[in-house]
Fold:
Amino acid sequence: MSALKQFRSMFLTHVKMTLREKQVWFWGIFFPVILMVIFMLIFSGGSDDFKVKVAAVADASHEGTGMMLAQLKQIPVFEWIEEEPVTRAYAEELVKDKEIAAAIVLPSAAGDTSLSLILNKEDEQNSTSMAVIGLLNEYVQTANLMAAGAEPVFSLDVESISAGSDDLKYQDFLLTGMIALSIAQGGLFGMVDMVEMRRKGLIKRLRMTPARMGLFGLSDMLMRLLFAVFQIILLSLIGVYGFGATLHIDLISLLIIFLFGALAFNAIGYFFSSFSKTTEAYMGIANIASFLMMFLSGVFFPIETMPGWLQPVSKALPLTYFVSGLRDGMVYATGWLSGAFWFGVGVLVLWGAVTFLLGSLLYRNRSLTAR
Amino acid sequence: MTVLEVQNLRKSYGSVQAVKDISFAVEAGEIFTIIGPNGAGKTTTLEMIEGLVRPDGGSISYGGLSWDKDAEAIRKLIGVQPQAEAMFDLLTPQENLELFASFYEKPMSVIEILDMVNLTEHRHKKVKVLSGGQRQRLAIGLAMIGDPQVLFLDEPTSGLDPQARRHIWDIVLALKEMGKTTILTTHYMDEAEKLSDRVCIVDAGEIVTLDAPEALIGRLTKEREVRMTFVDGDIAAEEAESFAGAQSSILRTERIGKDLKLWTERPEEALHALFGFTRDRGWRIDQVSIREMSLEDVFISYTGKEWRD
Structure:
């Protein structure tokens, strides 16, 4: 009975403190929302179809150029800014001004069979130029084969697959990444009040009353979890209604990964708080950890796109598994039956348990030597 | 009735012996003050008694209860106002009191406490906007909320202006009226002298003396310092000095211009003779004072240290 009374008033205290702390509003709500909106605007603004603007150049028109142009126009990726071929000088102008990605120079004489390509030197190495070169090479080879009267023996069909639903979009990827990031930050930054409470002697003060410190910690944890649920809902609503993200939620996986993830990051924050003497020191450490993980854990981009030597680092970070677990639970609607999901949960549990134990140990040593 | 008994308390931190050997007993309803220079072992002693630090040796008994066996029961008996401002800044005084009240089975009423520490008017303001004195009063309120038998007030008035200090004195005296036992530490000698039933002076981890403040002062040397200022100038003072020097009741003298100081163990007799002399000459004396011995003199004589260092 008295435990319940204590728990209720402790929980209420945590709710009031959280809602009255401006830092919580900024880092817990405002910051993740702004970050997500910015990334959504930058990276998911373009259409899904890949198009390359090109122009054809023909100095002299003859039968061959017309036929070639007609064939090239069959390639769906090219978007022709002029229906008819333009002059070389004009095309060069267009390339320099980056109005078009490339100009395709058709053969000038009837017997000539060589195509050439005008690219902007600055863009020579980029993926668009590579794509244009690849496409033209393919065209030339097909034309050669046809000229030689041979039938192609091999062909390549590209089919992309994903473990879950077909309509995976960057919005979905980013939304789930941002949700994981904001919950992780809640844990990493959220223990700053522990540092403050210890500095002010509040923890010592509570220990001099019949208050049950275990209940105090538990009520704090409950408040944090509820706050994280609020973050999930808020970010999901913005992602789905503001940017057209689609979610396929598997409630069991989501619950499991949410609980273990949130606990693990709070444990890491608790560990940071155990050796930080001031709030400034704590915020510094939390910031470093947060920034490292933010860019190495596949929040914004898949970790497969990172350099190979960096990938083992990603594979050691807890956020990597939290992000991917959350994606399993919120986008792919798979998860709690798969081995990879449980491996991720295991890594999070390991991180949480080790940091919690270390933190507790440091707290205990400190209180023994405290004067 | 003894509410707290401390025997042969010892505590070392590494090679530093913070508390060497401290024993005392506190009676129900008294205000028991511990004073001592910085680093004397006051804080360590208090922290051991409050159950925060485990002693290396000795015993602490709250009417038979000990920290080893009855920690929970003791926590219900005591109320602590620590030096640090340990309260929730983002909550109001009322919310702070309500939270602490929930820790106890039979807490005092929050309204009553707010009234007692004179914070009713400010009960809905956040603690972080309160003044130093208001916060100290809230800290005492928080110590009171569990209706404790024994209260620990650790320097409750340090850093406060004279008026705020008086407020706190009133609260401490009101607690005594209610029959509470208070263990007080302070940096102010006048405070210790005014409030305490008994004063315990601690130095270098040991008790150097323990008694009622008046008794401590009475035990000091009987020598008194008398000062007087002569309206008729230096010559009058000079002649009075040579007269005083011949008196057996006056131990020694000192004169600066028209101000004369003399030391005597029998101030009445010395002044009587001196006034007879000045009346005969028709000299007027502007000011006369006999400096009273205070707890500060007791402190200095026992510890050899100035109070504030």
Notes: Chain B has two domains: 2-218, 221-292.
